[in-house]
Amino acid sequence: MNPYGFVRLSGGGPVREAVRFHDRFEGVSGRISCKLTTRTALFVPKYREGSADRARMHETLEMCRDHTGRPMVPGTSLKGAIRAVVEAASNSCFTLPNRLAYERQTVSYGLPREFQSCEDVGALCAACRLFGMLNRGKVFSGNVSVQDAVAQSGYQTRQFTLAVLSTPKPRHRYFYSTKPEDPIPQIRGRKFYYHRPQGPRMRAQKDGQNKTVEAVLPGAFFTFEVEYNNLAEAGLSLLLFGLVLWDDTCHKVGMGKPIGMGSAKIEVTALTALDRQLRYRQWGGGWREPLTDKALTDFLSARVDGYRNGMTDNLQDLHRILRWDENAPDVINYPDQQWFKSNPKTPLEGAQPDPRVRCRDGGLYERPIPAFG
Ligand SMILES: [Zn+2]
Fold first, then answer.
1. Where's the CRISPR type III-associated protein domain (predicted)?
2. Which of 197, 249, 340, 341 could in theory staple to 245 by disulfide, Cβ–Cβ 3.0 to 4.6 A?
3. Per the confidence metrics, is the pTM higher than 0.90?
């Protein structure tokens, strides 16, 4: 099975609104405390200058760490992962270009006009209202800030010599579009990678085609905070859903998503609301008692259940692709060159294994292999 699927674009495009409230105290503000638990090896490279030039030799990359030496996932990286699911869940605009580069060429896919990137700060889709937008010099910095996630004690790291991270092949129109013969075929939707509970695909040989990385092992946990400022209630609900998703799904964070890395579960452990009117009167004041345990569960459920139970194409696709199943068989891999040669026009749905595939424990995989959307 191909390592990715597409979340369909649903309906007639995002509802766009201005972000500002008439009254500065109208929106909700506060802080969400989160815990991220690694389910497969997770790796974010330490920042190095000029790394692009060294691609020809085998590289050994270190994990990103904070000033005390603990593994860290930068807030920007987390924000990207959260924004991607928020965009898909809310049918927001498409922030990625629809002209895709590969191997020094580009290929264009059509995007319905309504889904093109927001251009006007006075009319933003739900994701841009939360996380901001940048389009041809117009900037809105967003009302949500995601802090760095730092590993808590008990984590372990290990070196993995990874499988070759093959570059995506967006020229394979039969995967990326349902109308591949059109002059500018329409994109199928938003691309997300399936989880691979078996963890990273590896390769014994070390050369310029692959890398060795120091990754954080499954079972480690990180903590981080998300601050939100002056959101509409609906914006807070969407943000919370972007963090917790469904009970049986995980996010993908960091490098190596196509080869099984970066699966992580995010949970909200506390939510502290900020009363802006109180804060205005008393500097440093205004923080309410944090919500935890049952009060937190109730608060979350009132806000995210609408998404969790949603029947729209986009929510169904997202749930299917991001589902984490510890016992899922090892069927995630790119078809090889030979397959592409023999099946030049097979759509994405055709690149599936025998449905009677075996589990690791030898039994047959009972749940049907989910169909592609
Ligand atoms: Zn937008």
1. 36-264
2. 249
3. no
